[in-house]
User: What shape does this take?
Amino acid sequence: MLPANEDLDRRRKVWNAFAGPFVDFTQDEGTLAEDYRRIGALIVELGYSDDDARRIFWTEVVPAIESMWLRINVDNPDWLEDRIVHPRSLRFYLKCLLFPPWIGIDWGYWREIKRGIKAARDLKERPASEPFESIEDWIHEPK
Assistant: This one.
């Protein structure tokens, strides 16, 4: 996988999608289940592997979100990118030690994101004769 600063166009989409459950700036007004399926579809569409997705979530997005938990600037669309591209400080790691409940939230989101990625990969491999004419039909299917 390319470093973040050499893959910004694709990476920005993934960063914003992964940050959605944390800060609730999701791509639509749908349910969280739809958001996780949309994230999975995006990962598959952009060609990231499961390991790439895991690495981006845990080493780029989670540290950026948690180190700024109370100072998220949703009015500036570049805040997440700025936080990820610039090196993290020791402060983030100290916060993780002081506020362990965030870690449980991260694992819950990651578990749902993994399910969305797996489902999107399964959908991509489906025979054409099976239902869902488009990825949007699948995303909005009630579960």
Q: What stands out?
A: The chain has seven helices and no strands. The first helix runs from residue 8 to 23.
